[in-house]
Amino acid sequence: MDGETLNGGVNQVVRIGRTVRRPTGAWTPAVHSLLRHLAETGFTGAPRVRGIDEEGREILDFVPGEVAHYPIPEYVRGDVALAAAGRLLRRYHDASAGFTAPDGAVWQLPAREPREVVCHGDAATYNTVFRVGLPVALIDFDAAHPGPRVWDLAYTAYRFAPLGAPGSNGEHVPVAEQARRLRLLADAYGLGPADRRALPRTVCDRLHALVAFMTERAAAGDTAFARHLADGHDALYRTDAAHVRAHEERFAEALLSGASTEPPPAAAT
User: Quick check: pTM over 0.85?
Assistant: First the structure.
């Protein structure tokens, strides 16, 4: 069956009518259980599962809108879109918090403690659907895994603020502006004080974990990740992690200055 090939990163993704077909993996049953749970809670910011097709691909609803691949569109870097991304991730986390994984569930990435929510695992601009300039849904849940809220938010912050070193992904964002935008994202999410203190260092840890994962997958014969290493993605992430580490105190000060010491209220799903 023919269809429109979409930009799927490490996967071949095909749109057929109102559905999307994607490769499956050992983690697919757990991810489908999660997506069904999200639908049952009323969370609308994720695709619905429709099953497996005759070629063994998963069938998901196509989520209409624009996906923000690099180079990042200007509207994605606006404050309104950034705050909306924080609120979207918070709603997703709150919806996932009540999920009970099936017995023997397999995740692509290892679970991390504390298991507060099911992390999306790759909640970046390129896995976010925008409409009229605002984020409305997350896609590509292959990297989902149980873990702490701040672990997931760290990667969203890295991609949305963004927090890269000068020139990273072709962008040059001054440190003061990165700090301001990081605070805006944390406020929109409703991040508590302990996680605010941990967020800058967690960004570094998250990037190093990504490099380790890429290296492991490439060594196992995954050609997509081998290509990423050949293109220098690992070096970019290490450079960006060093940048965040060098400015950790400034980022932490921005996150904590005048922030509420009370735990954030639960967001509605």
Answer: yes
